[in-house]
Design a protein that fits this description.
421 residues, single chain, 15 helices, Rossmann fold, alpha/beta, seven-stranded mixed sheet, five-stranded mixed sheet, binds nicotinamide-adenine-dinucleotide
């Protein structure tokens, strides 16, 4: 592909190509036949909807929305909803596919799904955001439900979005259905410990992958949102020194260590890390290339590519985001001896506690934060150990091993269920 045509491929299409390549490589290792490969490469259900939204000035805009259920062989579909201007059907399909392997890898009874609306939430008022959310949910209503497909927060959405989804679904059903979404406010049946769950999982994965004590280890975090900011906090609590952080507004570095709480207060006040007083400004690219022990990409796909991978100096990369490393970058990092804890393992804490929230909703009960945290820790540690063992046994990278386990379990479920009719 020439550089001119390469730029025509959307980031979403690149993410899907990466996901398909990872599937193909796992399928080779598992000796899957062509029919099963095709089933696993193809989404079970893929819905594109138009979402008309009335703006405050009376104008009507129409944005596109998507919901993809990649696979439902092991259980109902599960996956977040993303509000981002560059979201497209390819990106949502890739993210749904990764959800399928992730749920199988950590042993929870879900298939994989993802949703998205191609809108920039920062340009909408709260009322416009509510209208977009409710109308989008209304459009995908026939395919979601606590036994069918359970959304959760992702980039650009939060517990308020989940509350609106729960309300829209419940009003249509005629009775409250808390189990239709996870990541809800606790007043509506959200689980204790869901808010920081992905980030606590990132901490568990980081400490497992690190040889020796975390004390004084340096960390850089790309993306200071729902995953990145608490991950920075938890890693600092574990004794690490968080020296660099970036978000969409900029990047900052302080080699003596950033005060994560103070930085969060600054972000709360100003809307981003840009201009933070107790640190120096840095470019987005330089943040990824800091000489640190651990790099946590926690923003979007395609952050570490063939272009910049050779300049990454971190010894360990723990993927808080989904798909932040391209397959070409993976090879360069492996050659350089850099360990990558892959997304489907490192950020699985979110879906694990989403599962625990759903179980509590179905049973109409609520567990203590301690109980939730213990289950999260057990599942993360067991999954990490299984991936590490497979990696050592078969000489695979952690990503290759995680995919062999995840894809293998879904393939096995297909075999056991057989093909109807
Ligand atoms: P979020 O919207 O809360 O935060 C995203 C952050 O990334 C923001 O701080 C934003 O400013 C920043 N960002 C955007 N572009 C950037 C760039 N070019 N450079 C640096 N920072 C940039 O989203 P989130 O929920 O924290 O999700 C982040 C990633 O984690 C996504 O890949 C998501 O799919 C994945 N993930 C999220 C969860 C969850 O529970 N929220 C669970 C598993 C995985």
């Amino acid at each position: 592909m020439t550089p001119a045509t390469a730029t025509l491929v959307s980031p979403g299409r690149q993410a899907l190509d990466s996901a398909l390549l990872q599937l193909d490589q796992a399928a080779d290792r598992l000796h899957l036949d062509d029919g099963l490969r095709t089933m696993l490469a193809t989404p079970r259900r893929s819905l594109t909807v138009s979402v008309p939204v009335r703006r405050e000035d009376g104008r009507m805009d129409v944005v596109q929305g998507f919901r993809v259920q990649h696979n439902t062989t092991r259980g109902p579909a599960k996956g977040g909803i993303r509000f981002h201007p560059s979201t497209d059907i390819h990106e949502v399909t890739a993210l749904a596919m990764w959800m399928t392997w992730k749920c199988a890898l950590v042993g929870i009874p879900y298939g994989g799904a993802k949703g998205g609306v191609s809108v920039d939430p920062a340009t909408l008022t709260t009322r416009e955001l509510e209208r977009v959310t409710r109308r989008y949910v209304n459009e995908i209503l026939p395919i979601i439900g606590p036994d069918k497909d359970i959304p959760a927060p992702d980039v650009g959405t939060d517990e308020q979005t989940m509350a609106w989804i729960m309300d829209t679904y419940s009003v249509n059903a005629g009775y409250p259905v808390p189990g239709v979404v996870t990541g809800k406010p606790t007043t509506l049946g959200g689980s204790l410990g869901r808010a920081g769950a992905t980030s606590r999982g990132v901490r568990i994965a980081t400490l497992k992958a690190m040889s020796g004590s975390p004390e004084g280890r340096t960390v850089a975090v790309q993306g200071f949102g729902k995953v990145g900011a608490p991950a920075a906090r938890y890693l600092a609590d574990a004794g690490c020194r968080v020296v660099g952080v970036s978000d969409a507004t900029g990047a900052v570095v302080n080699h003596s260590g950033l005060d994560v709480d103070d930085l969060r207060a600054w972000v709360e006040e100003t809307g981003g890390v840009y201009g933070y007083r107790h640190a120096d400004a840095l470019s987005h690219e330089d943040l990824l290339e800091l000489d640190v022990d651990v790099l946590v990409p926690a923003a979007l796909e395609g952050a570490i590519t063939a272009e910049n991978a050779s300049r990454v100096r971190a010894r360990l990369i723990v993927e808080g985001a989904n798909g932040p490393t391209t397959p070409e970058a993976d090879r360069i990092l492996a050659d350089a001896g850099i360990t990558v804890v892959p997304d489907i393992l490192a950020n699985a804490g979110g879906v694990i506690v989403s599962y625990l929230e759903w179980v509590q909703n179905l049973q109409a009960c609520s567990w203590s934060a301690k109980e939730v945290d213990t289950r999260l820790r057990d599942l993360m540690e067991e999954s990490f150990d299984a991936v590490a063992a497979m990696s050592a046994e078969r000489g695979l990278s952690l990503r290759q091993a995680a995919h062999v386990i995840g894809v293998g379990r879904v393939a096995e479920a297909h075999r056991m269920r057989g093909l109807y009719p």
